[in-house]
Amino acid sequence: MKHRTILCWGASWIALAACAAPAAALADDQTQNAGTVEEVVVTAQKRAENIQDVPLSIMAVSAKAMEAKGVEDATDLERTVPNLRLDAIAQASGIAIRIRGFGAQSNAAIDPSVAPYVDGVFIPRPGAVLSTFLDVETVEVLRGPQGTLFGRNATVGALSVKTYAPQFGGMSGRIGAQIGSYGEHQVDGMINVPAGENFALRFAGLANETDGFVKNKLDGKTYGAKDTVEGRLSAKWQPTDAFTWIGRADYAHTSGDGVAINQVDISTATPAQLAAYTARTNGNPTTLSDPPSFTANQLYKNLNLADIQWGASSDITWEFAGGYTLRLIDAYRDWQNQQSDGDVVFTTLDLLSRDARFDSKSQSHELQLISPKGALMDGRLDFVAGLYYFDEDYKIDEVFHVGRQFCTFAAPVALRALCETFPKTAATVGAFTQDAKSTAAYAQATFAFTDTLDLILGGRETWDKKSGTFVQTIKNPLLASTLRAPESAALTFDDSQPNWRASLSWRPMPDVTAFITYATGYKSGGLNSAGGTVALGARRLFDSETSTDWEVGAKSVLLDRRLLLNVTAYRTDLDDFQERSFDGTSFIVRNAGSIRAQGVELEGQAKPTANFSVDFGMAYLDSKFTANHFAPGLPACTGAATSCPLTQDLTGKRPTYSPEWTGNLGAEYVTPQFADGFTVAIRGDASYSSSYASTNDLSPQGMIDAVTLYGGRVTLTSPDRSWQVALYGENLTNEKVFRTKFPQVLDAAFGTRDPATGHTLYRGFMGTPRTYGVRISKTF
User: Fold this and answer.
1) What is the pTM of this model?
2) Residue 386: enclosing H or E segment and its boundaries?
3) What pLDDT score was predicted for residue 590?
4) Element (H, E) at 409
5) By CB neighbour count within 10 A (0-12 exposed, 13-18 middle, 19+ buried), where does 357 fall?
6) I want to staple 127 with a disulfide (CB 3.0 to 4.6 A). Which of 8, 106, 113, 609 is the partner?
7) Pairing label, strands 304-320, 324-343
8) Is 236 within 8 Å of 200 (Cβ atoms)?
């Protein structure tokens, strides 16, 4: 069922604020007057600055805004930030962070295109970000290449999470509890304990459990259960005004069955294909309905998810020589994800199950030298410079087990008896190892031509080296042609690239900044970590990805600080785009070609009265391949028919995950005080995405329909503002939508392939159904 929403845009700023779509988030209400819009301080340029003075397309989401909008983990951020997406797949480790349509799944050795940072520390595997979203003060989303200051993995942007640091002074704390739909229970809290005048500790913790929402007809059970325990201990020591040390240690453990529901999209198949699929599943197929339901009919067996991570960081800041600052950030992170995700053909049959393990151990060290503002040339010049080192040891293990029905289902009739004689447990084993080292040096300077005109120039040189091995062993030879081919390879890759940034910003009047920025980005090439139906050989290596970006924008606070409005027009050119292509059984990374993405991003806030506020954002994206000559053909193509080749030229077509329109709109009304000081805040939010392609062959069957999602929250606050009780809900209209699609695994064996057209049966991972609950919290 297609769902389209037309966004309205008025001619005036006030009309625009009232009817646009979005939710820009902006920050610390302690510094704001009740009748004006909020502001936020960000560190996008390695120093604390008002977001309105930073010449970048950047949005910041504060703790207050996240609570108001129901943002509980990183995946919820896309409801607040246009042109940002966070997608998950069957493996819980496979989170993809995307900005302006660009990104990469994290359950492989490919580096992210959007660099995730937590407290200034790069997180190499985005799947680990979900369990570090605790006691967060601010999230900064930087759109466009950030290679100069954020490094090689910021080809198209960065996601920077800042957690609260301990505070001196009196003791403070917070405790909260919530009960929600699908058996959700959560308790969380924080306590800040000063220990003398110059030392303080802060501990934050969370425990959450849910029963899941996937009802399975095959066994009558409910799936999607998950238990999470997280904790972070922070310390701050400031023996003098010039020296500060902040240390952090965190731990997170997530367990459960790991089920992410995916369903057959019946609109992608003909009646004959659906009949063949039903017959091959013994008349008991996966649930077939339009729209898809949250009721599954699949074989779930031996399910298990264990995600464990811990890390420690040290952040030393030393101010010397009249305001110059040395900052040293050292960090170590250990992330292990193990998942047994049952039958990966996703039917009622016992065919193939998979065990996977991802193990990342990384360390990073960054030394920064930051000058005072206007330190040189009579107050006209200041700079930031740094040295960076990163090292990661990464291992991926993949084991497939043959189910009891596989041989009779997938093997040729003449070989079925032979198939039964081969081992079924650990029928194929893939082992990948990689050691990646990266070093860099960077500098960025700001020169003030006048009091209102600044020039920023920056550069970075990065050196990367990767080495690894891939070994695929086969115990059941019949899987060599249908699932994995034997292979043994030793792999090396190295590259170095410069990145540049130039920006001119002009302040024609107070609270108004206009800018033009040129920036480049670089993402290291590397090693293919997945097995395939044929040995990849030289195709196990892929080249580095580079980007160039132009941005023209304006940031303004108008109407006596009652309207904040920021707009950016951009053009990004990406070369040697690293794309993961699904070939029916595995994912392979290749350099797909070049992409041009251009568009407009707008966000802001309006505060017509002290009690009523609107926050909004919108993004228009015009994206196309400027070169993609050897893209995968449609999944059922054999090359026998000229109309159905094995490869296709997609030059001029719109890439995947690039909706033309995305937007958010939020409105909040706070009642006047009543009953000796109580207030009620009533908030509603809407987020919109137009349709987009989700498969690399750009098959029409892989298209995702447009959708609008609605959320709401009603919060009662006590007179002293220490108690709050909130009722909340998300996806209030219970939209049943696909997030991403893929061809049915082993579709040839199901008889759903049409070699003449290339069409086959598609499945899709679904978004979350309607959720609701109540939360109570107390601060002291």
Assistant:
1) 0.90
2) strand 381-402
3) 87
4) helix 406-410
5) middle
6) 106
7) antiparallel
8) yes
